[in-house]
Amino acid sequence: MSFNTLGLRDEILTAISEAGYTEPTPIQQQAIPVVLQGRDLMACAQTGTGKTAGFTLPLLQLLSQKQSSKKTGRRPVRALILSPTRELAAQIHENLVAYNKYLKLRTLVIFGGVSINPQMMKLRGGVDILVATPGRLLDLEKQNAVDLSQVEYLVLDEADRMLDMGFIHDIRRVIAKIPAKRQNLLFSATFSKEITELATKLLHNPASVEIERHQTSSAQVTQALYFVDKNRKRELLSHLIEGENWQQVLVFCRTKHGANRLTEYLNERGISASAIHGNKSQGARTRALADFKTGDIRVLVATDIAARGIDIAELPFVVNFDLPSVPEDYVHRIGRTGRAESTGKAVSLVCVDEHKLLKDIERLLKTEIPRVEMAGFEPDPSIKAEPIENGRNSRGRGNSRNSRNSHSRGQSSPRNSEGAGNSSNRSRRSSRAGNNTDAGKSPEGSSHKKPRNSQSKNDQSASNKPKRHEGKGGQVKATGNQTTNRPSNEGASEKPKRRRQRAPRDRG
């Protein structure tokens, strides 16, 4: 089958051909006709199978055929694509720009971690298709910078990842702001119980497309597993990179600090590496990814924020330096290699602490990952397993539901992961401000008031002592009457002014 048989416009077909695509993938063959029919869609396929083109191509077709109902003013947002991470949002927009090359539709991507003002200026010019992370979208909507009242198409890409990251409440808020009459497209790498529940509430009589339903790894990926002591993982990784001459390697770590430490170690050994994670600025993340794609650095060390946002043609090697706490994330990680028709290799370094995680992953895969022994790196059998430190924002095994609940309670914000800008910082500052207010509440606001004139003698004598105030330059001034004893209820109007506490800022 060719793209010519899918009913796409000549302009789109020309752009697809120039991008180097000749035949649609299975998910594209099944999804594109359903979207063009105007039906809601629930699609499940492995990462790297072409899901993005499965919804961007028919959206471009539909929007180019149908003019906006708004005759005057700026172009309204007619198609909204939600993505869990900045990197994935940027990747979707890159594909849109390529496919939209010969059309006159306007596209824009917005996410946090960068200045909001340029995004507001571009929105004023009008946008047909908007790709966004949920947090930044809500920030812009709150400032009346984006109008969602005329959205005709809603796409949730990597929906399972958005739920894992705690975005369900933001998704509901976005849905409440767009018209009820619209076409909904839900794309996911897995079909979990939570995804099915979301689809039931969001979609209307949807068509269902499933590719590789059983959530196994891609056949194009060769897997290998090395048992090694935890404190020798870095040494083994550098040995593999240098000994087998790996030139482009994506390495996944469990924590941000672990990613930083591994990056420093590799650079000290002469292996060029950069780290990408939630604590890095968007500029640093973009530069690191660009350098990795062009080959300026050999190793990109990432946390799971990049598991669904990195799309590199023919990436040869992926390494699980730490096994993920959620078995499904293993599939998403190694799905960065072996994409489309290319092949790749996925290597996992496993210490004694991770044996339980390995069993869960192999249970999901329904197969055993091939073991490889490396001479000189045999694990010490006397070392006992210790609890795994997941980091503050990590999800423990089997606790993804609890993680999402903790996000909703404000204990941990997903915004740092997907880049909603300063929203999470504001919420943390608000929380701290609220706690300080409660701790330092004035007597007027307290439920345990002291009766007037009930001061002890010590309190009265203390109140008669001169009050010492530090002025400018460190000078100390004594104030107050040192010789006259006044009743405690006198001089009420001379009470020192209390500093007015600023109320916590509510994000809304």
Q: Can you give a write-up of this model?
A:
It is a single chain. The protein is α/β, with parallel strands linked by helices. It folds into 2 domains: 202 residues, Rossmann fold (3-Layer(aba) Sandwich), CATH 3.40.50; 169 residues, P-loop containing nucleotide triphosphate hydrolases (Rossmann fold, 3-Layer(aba) Sandwich). It is 36% helix and 13% strand. The protein has 18 helices and 15 strands. It has a 7-stranded parallel beta sheet, sandwiched between helices. It has a 6-stranded parallel beta sheet with strand order 8-13-12-9-11-10, sandwiched between helices. A two-stranded antiparallel ribbon has the order 14-15. Helix 6 packs across helix 8. The longest helix is centred in the last third of the chain and has 17 residues. It is globular. It is an enzyme of class 3 (hydrolase).
Features:
Rossmann fold, disordered C terminus, six-stranded parallel β-sheet, alpha/beta, 508 residues
> For this entry, what is the oligomeric state of its chains?
single chain
Gyration radius from CA atoms, angstroms: 29 Å
What fraction, in percent, of the residue positions are helical? 25-40%
Low-confidence stretches: 392-467, 469-494, 503-508
Strand content: 5-15%
Can you say what the CATH homologous superfamily of the largest domain is?
P-loop containing nucleotide triphosphate hydrolases
**What count of helical segments does DSSP give?**
18
CATH architectural label of the largest domain: 3-Layer(aba) Sandwich
